[in-house]
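Subject: Interface between my chains keeps coming out wrong

I've been trying for a while to get a sensible model of this assembly. When I model each chain on its own everything looks fine, but I need the whole thing in one frame so I can look at the contacts. Pasting all components below, labels as-is. Any help appreciated, I'm running out of ideas.
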Amino acid sequence: MREVAIVSFAQAPNVRDAGAKNEVELLMPVAHAALERAGLTLQEIGFTCSGSSDYLAGAPFSFVMAIDALGAWPPISESHVEMDGAWALYEAWVKIQHGAADSALVYGFGKSSSGEIRDVLSLQLDPYYVAPLWPDSISLAALQARALLESSRYSEKDLAEVAVRSRRNARSNPNAQLAGDVDPAALLAEPYLVSPLRKHDCPPISDGVAAVVLAAGDLARRICQRPAWIRGIDHRIEPHSLGVRDLTRSPSTELAAEKAGVQQGPIDLAELHAPFTHQELILRDALGLRDDVELNPSGGALAANPVMVAGLTRIGEAASRISAGSAQRAVAHATSGPCLQQNLVCVLEGE
Amino acid sequence: MEDPIQDITTPIRLDYQYTAGSATAKFLRGLKQGRLLGQRCPKCAKVIVPARGACARCGVATEEEVEVADRGTVTTFCVVHIPVPGSEIKPPFVCATIQLDGADIGCFHLVSEVSPDEVRAGMRVQAVWKPREEWDHTFENIRYFKPTGEPDAELEDTRGTGHA
Amino acid sequence: MANPAEDVLSASYALEFSYTRSVGPVIGRFLTGLRDHRIEGVVGSDGKVIVPPTEYDPFTGAELESFVEVGQAGVVTSWAWMAEPRAHQPLDRPFAWALIRLDGADTALLHAVDAGDESRMSTGMRVKVRWREQTSGHIQDIACFEPEAG
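Reply #2:
Try treating it as a single job with all components included. I did that and got this:
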């Protein structure tokens, strides 16, 4: 296995609506910043991979226009996934493992403000049995939340406390959208949005971009004083049908965590891609995280949830804290699909 | 006994509010005033029309506004024989890449008032605008381009430059 | 710098696709059943009955071929109250989304329950199918479910 590290990370401020700026205009400064921080030009990068969604953008091949932000001349080696940028990172990591590249630029982008994100996400569902009913993303998450609450492992108060912690942590994140001190009792007094979920249990709608540069071995050491080494990375997916799954657990996260070697050492910090409060609790249990682990210091997806980006951002946030020296070993997680159907787990470590 | 079900229709509809982007908005606003606006790349100095806010070759932001003429040269074209769903344009019709005078890359539009078999790369063309009162934020303010009758222009060999 | 508010030029548009999908023999059999007011499941590798039927076992990947009819009523295993229904959803008045395990099935089907009020919903309650007046071989042949208690 080649040693691969994250050597730089950049993101745009996450906002409810990026206004006049289109995806190319949002991406350009972020991609440039990631490259500059790595001291590499696009032509020196071995492979470029992005994550985004055509249904989110409302146009086919929407990721192709994003290349305008990079300057792909002479032509570059490039790929794309219709998924969160975390999976673009996985593809780039595999490319480097194969020896086809020594470095990669990975980015995710998406403007959830353009369309109705709750309905857009319905299109990822079973097209025969489920999608024609148009269950939206919050309704499906609510089904999972009720199952968790009725299992008696957690209460609505536990869910509210996840929201409180997320926003409190987000106060130190200049790129977060929802930050501040909120009183859990005040949150619980709010009406349900789709019961048993309230507004604070759900993610904000965000426009955003994030980019990461990967580098192998000695190149990483030359670029970065303290690279965040990817010691393990794995992703697993569960059956498509919600009705055959135990929604109160995340077996795919458990298995990905095992394969990535999460428990092979102490974990200082975890960045978990949990767009809903109850999902953070399920994921924490699936990863076997102890109470002393610093959880979502960035505020997580409850503080900013640019769809197609938030998972990659978790990896970048964890990596940058390792590079800054404030953590030695971290786990970063990304999710895709309804009710945590598919999960990617990444273990990062300083030298 | 009816036949077993072999297929289903599952129509979808999603509504969007599409934002043009700062540079494209400038281009469209220009069109509403009857002007064609491009931008010059600060790195390669090429003038890109329509203005897009970025030079795709250099990967840098473009800001310097450059107005270009509403006449130019056909660099390549095709003759379309099949109707476009939802369009009033009757085949056969000509779609062309037209490098407007002052621009370094081509843009797409229709060529008309000429027999398709007379259209050629190098042909000089001029925009035919809709009446001013019909102008909106759209390239369709120009109905099509028609031949000017000038002698053909010599085309720059752009092979290998990354620009069309 | 120009005022950002001046720069926003936007237009609304709709993306519409008609999508005709071939269903194959397994989904086709289920939908044919719905057209005829019959609900069928498929027997999984471990003998459990999967509704709606899948072509392959979700856990072993084995091809599944054995069908059984299941009941038209069953138990709610989880639910969520949709106070403000969105476009295209099964009902245009408040309703519950629910996972429903029909009698004889071992897995749950996702659908809507026309309960009238959130207070009528509970995990474990029994609900029954309400068929659409005209069925055509589509998941929407089940218009929704309703409380069995009436």
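Reply #3:
Confirming on my end. The longest strand of chain A covers residues 207-216.
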